[in-house]
Amino acid sequence: MIIHFFRRTFLILFLFLLYILRGNVVIPNQPNPWRHDPTTEDARCAAYPDPGNIAVAVKTSAAYASLEQLNRIANIFHCLSPDRLLFLSDLDQTVGPYTLHNVLSQASPTLLNWHHDFSFYRKQERYAKRGLNVRDMNSKTPVLSPETSEAKEQELKILDKYKFLHMVEKAWELQPDMDWYVFADPSAYYFWPNLVRWLREIDPAQARFFGKASRIASSELDIANEQSGFVMSGAAVKLLVSKGTRVTKSWDKKVAQMENGQHVLATALHSEISLKLTDAWPLLIGETLGRIPFKQEIWCEPVVGLADVPSNLVLRLLNLEQSMLVDSKDAIFTYKHLFNELSTKMSVTTPYTFPDSPTSYLYRRMWDNIADSTQYEGENIDWKDPKMLADPNHFIHSLEDPNKTPSSCAKACDAFVQCTQFSYLEYEAKVIQSGRVLRSGGVCYLSTIFRFGVGRGINVWDDDGGDGRNPAGSVANTQLFFSAWNRQKWVDYSNGLRCH
Question: Is 284 exposed, middle or buried (CB count within 10 Å of its CB: 0-12, 13-18, 19+)?
């Protein structure tokens, strides 16, 4: 009995140690466990098999590349032949079954060895040569490294500017003569069927450059939003790389003075081959999920790329795509489907009825549903509009000041027929030592568009009075956001929109 006990104990310990070893050593060097035969096990790939003319280049970095990150994006694109899924980074590495290509290796020796923008690059090269894990550079404590995490982030951001043009050159070098080059962000989600369907409709023999258009003060050109990636036709890439010498040779000298990598890319494409960005919104959505404006104009539009998608939602979207295509190979994932899927998580938001308001709201504290946005015409209800206030018969005069409390803000939303949601910013300035409140109040924002919103923790900072009259550390200013959505209008809105 005792011998049997020790044998069983030894076996358990052995299996536990084996699990640890496989979890940390063996598994990263095994084939991707998510990869399977797409033609027999994946409805997406059965309905939209790899057309053979698309290369996907994923921009990552040695500081952040992990097996989890790479598995995730490989799973999203597993209908694509693995040799055309490229991982482009700032260090040559092997992470599990994935090869990461250093796109900056072709930069000039002067930049690589001496330029201050490449200081982080040189540090990680030294780390790698010593056999150390480069990702540890980001997790060092101040005891081990004098640099703050903010300083490292800034170094990585500067280094990232140099990658974009080099990525285009490397993608062509690794997979020449493709019809399409999709430059993907690893934190995004891409709907493979919609991507294939979209690119089928466009002539790749024409020079094309697609992305979610955005603007920066230092450029008159539209630049692509980085979080959702960008797409170039083979003709555009070929034009850029077939100019005799590497375009990066001359453009690397200009990067230091430019704002970001997308700025570099847009400027270079316009200068070198007279190509401007074509706005692909809403196919490629630059907004994070909580900021997407669910409007009639996009409700029935297909979604190709979403920005900054958490991993748990990636799995849900994959499953939803699968089930839709099992039901019908002609199914198209639209913003309607995205709205409905995101709505399932609104159950964590508390149903609430404000005092003296007949309306049932979904209510969330420390949350901002972006009701103050003025991005689109008519989305923000300006209840302080002078024309409205000038009308003595307008109902606004019978309302309690909407800025007074969240409850008064809710009643204002009730009064405006087009109001679907509101947010309320509560603020307070208090003397820290005595607790005396110097001022307090709130701001009410009303909106006609549904947005899911983003988390906003309590914001506290030193209040110097605006002119330094308060000594440092003497007065604390606090801000807190509340958000609410009209429950019935939420249901009516989503049920009332139709796709034909």
Answer: buried
- The 10s digit of each residue's pLDDT in 420-440 is 999 999 998 888 778 888 888
pTM value is 0.84
- Cα–Cα dist 18/5, whole Å: 20
